[in-house]
Amino acid sequence: xxxxxxxxxxxxxxxxxxxxxxxxxxxxxxxxxxxxxxxxxxxxxxxxxxxxxxxxxxxxxxxxxxxxxxxxxxxxxxxxxxxxxxxxxxxxxxxxxxxxxxxxxxxxxxxxxxxxxxxxxxxxxxxxxxxxxxxxxxxxxxxxxxxxxxxxxxxxxxxxxxxxxxxxxxxxxxxxxxxxxxxxxxxxxxxxxxxxxxxxxxxxxxxxxxxxxxxxxxxxxxxxxxxxxxxxxxxxxxxxxxxxxxxxxxxxxxxxxxxxxxxxxxxxxxxxxxxxxxxxxxxxxxxxxxxxxxxxxxxxxxxxxxxxxxxxxxxxxxxxxxxxxxxxxxxxxxxxxxxxxxxxxxxxxxxxxxxxxxxxxxxxxxxxxxxxxxxxxxxxxxxxxxxxxxxxxxxxxxxxxxxxxxxxxxxxxxxxxxxxxxxxxxxxxxxxxxxxxxxxxxxxxxxxxxxxxxxxxxxxxxxxxxxxxxxxxxxxxxxxx
Length: 481
Description:
Layout: H1 33-60, H2 66-93, H3 125-143, H4 153-176, H5 181-185, H6 193-211, H7 230-249, H8 257-285, H9 290-304, H10 313-330, H11 333-337, H12 345-363, H13 366-369, H14 392-420, H15 430-435, H16 437-442, H17 449-458
Helix pairs in contact: 1-2, 1-3, 1-7, 2-3, 2-4, 3-4, 3-6, 4-6, 4-14, 6-12, 6-14, 7-8, 7-9, 8-9, 8-10, 9-10, 9-12, 10-12, 12-14
């Protein structure tokens, strides 16, 4: 399909403006139809990832709280979708602002039409807003897995709106907005190592800390149980893997060779991460784990995210191996910390994001970034160690530490204050936890308990199972709760 002639935008750059008058001129002439088609497709792919997170978490969780996690992921789309329209996009991607956060010049999506976005001159504000809104939606959906088994729904919804405003928007601003301190420092983050993965991993750890341990939690073995529905885990992984092509590939913000390279390294890292985790589990149990492969693939995808548009294909193998090993062993950190982090969000996304950021500082290459046809000449990146730019690793470390610390501390503060508000106590009581979130908070179930009970009543010799459970790290079939 022909994109037609592309003309240079003639408006005032660097400030919010109306982006042209569609009654007087064809605003499409400033952009390529191919770029529009690619980014709109990637937007849909990233949206698909959010229910993918819900299915992934649901399969890992216990049966009695499985539906609640899917529901929360869907609610993240709705709540953050409104927040992004209301003021989120303006706070994160306004054309002017401080080194820390943007202003309200695009409040309510005003002045977001055909002006080139702060992300790229290849797409306008309106399309950039749509695409980045999906990143904003998936981040709290990742973090909210910490609610598993004991977190109330209403406070979680309020938390999503506040957290996205106070935590996600500033981190996204300083990482991706040209006015942000990390961007000016020289930090490299192609698709969300810090704003998405490190921030959500830190938030999940803080949420788990503030909620406290689940009933029956043991400081040595935790709360061992097996994933209640591995099929849901696989389904969620498939949604995420497919969606990640839009997540990383779309972050080139145009249909070009850099987008293709981002997709290639993303796929390689996922493949190698899955193989690495499976082999690590096999060495201990002599079993080939489906959940292990899915967990490893996600670890590889997380690790390559900040690097996808900066690193050559051969390095993606290293991202997959190091990401898989680091996240696998990081699942044990919750026992050292004494925090009941049920779904290992911190191990997968927090640790995986940090590993990916640091490896970016080593393997980032200027000639890979230049594949977009824009990052050349004066706009070329300095690269990482492969370009003998050794200070880049320090930039990546500073960005990682700042993002993790800010997200963890602010999440604790938000949850502490929410818990003081009447009606917004964070946790269900012990009786409600025993019943399960699906019954207590939703009144609906992922599975029909009534029919199961009837079957047990009419078939002699059958007894109800004493387990309805799942976790990344829980592997012992004899220990079910």
